[in-house]
Specification:
154 residues; alpha+beta; Nuclear Transport Factor 2, Chain: A; six-stranded mixed beta sheet; 4 helices; 36% helix; 42% strand
């Protein structure tokens, strides 16, 4: 009986010691720096109207979901939608007003931002969107950060 109790105590101690430890500030900063590269790619692709580059930041997964101005889409639908969305513009310029990176765990970051977009439409008129919002869930996959969930309002 004592042996069984001792084994149980050892197992419990071992299990408690193997619990996932919180990330250090250095680890969080490293993950944020890596995620910033993806976010930079997204804004650069949008400003250069490069739908292929923009959608290359998406994680090809059945778990991918987008919500773009009230319309949901899975990975395939969203990748298919972006060329026509970006085709409405000749040029775009983003000004990030606020942004925040929240590290949820070692492989998950929540990115949120508020931005202003000045867009030159195909008919040469200018559209200004003052309160654009992004809420992106970034997931580390095969050592690369990708967008698992994309929410955009304008």
């Amino acid at each position: 009986m004592k042996t069984k109790l001792l084994i149980l105590i050892v197992l419990l101690l071992f299990a408690c010691n193997n619990a996932e430890k919180p990330l250090t500030e250095a680890e969080k900063e490293k993950n944020i720096a890596e995620a910033k590269n993806v976010i930079s790619t997204i804004y650069q692709a949008a400003e250069s109207n490069d739908a292929v580059k923009l959608t290359s930041t998406f994680l090809d997964s059945p778990d991918f979901v987008s919500l773009i101005n009230g319309e949901f889409g899975n990975y395939e639908e969203t990748v298919k939608k972006y060329p026509s969305l970006m085709g409405e513009y000749k040029a775009q310029k983003a000004t990030i007003l606020t942004e925040k990176y929240t590290v949820l765990d070692d492989s998950t970051i929540l990115y949120s931002s508020k931005s202003k977009w000045e867009c030159k439409l195909q008919n040469d008129s200018i559209a200004v969107y003052d309160n654009c919002g992004f809420l992106l869930l970034l997931k580390k996959s095969d050592k690369d950060w990708k967008v698992l969930s994309w929410t955009e309002t304008y």
